[in-house]
Amino acid sequence: MAISSSAPDLEEQEPQDTSPLLGTTHHDDDPAKLKSNYIRIIIAVTCAVFLVEIGDFILRAPTIRLMEDTICRKYYDSQGNTSVNLNLPIPEERCKIAPVQTELAMLRGWDTTFSCIPGILLAIP
After folding, report:
1. What DSSP string runs through 58-118?
2. Does any domain span residue 85?
3. Most CB atoms within 10 A, among 1, 4, 93, 110?
């Protein structure tokens, strides 16, 4: 003869309006185990952010050089200068002139401005 318990199991109960959506919580979890889980999560997130920032930093210099080269080619093309062959790589020192650097600085300023706009807009609750 089976012994029946006075309270039915939680799995056999019908869901009610007050039932927890994620199930029951176990209050017998070890605080040291929870702390070690939090530490592992913090380390993983920190490493992920660190790797993303390193990738961004490594890409910054080549990106600026490509922008500078594009602006330099456009400048020499508009000047009609025949001493610079636009089909070959332009030496970097020829791109360090004021008109090219002015346009590059303006382009980098706008890039920084537009990259800050999402952060500014999303910071407002």
Report:
1. HHHHHHHHHHHHHHHHHHHHHHT-TTS-TTSPPPGGGG-SHHHHHHHHHHHHHHHHHHHHH
2. yes
3. 110
Place of tokens 């001493």: 83
Question: pLDDT (tens digit, 0 to 9) for every residue of the chain, 125 residues total?
Answer: 455 555 555 556 677 888 777 766 655 567 778 888 899 999 999 999 999 999 999 999 999 999 999 999 999 889 886 677 788 888 899 999 999 999 999 999 999 999 999 999 999 87
CA distance 89 to 107: 22
User: Which residue has 């056999």 as its token pair?
Assistant: 12
Range of the domain at 107: 29-123
10 part of a folded domain: no
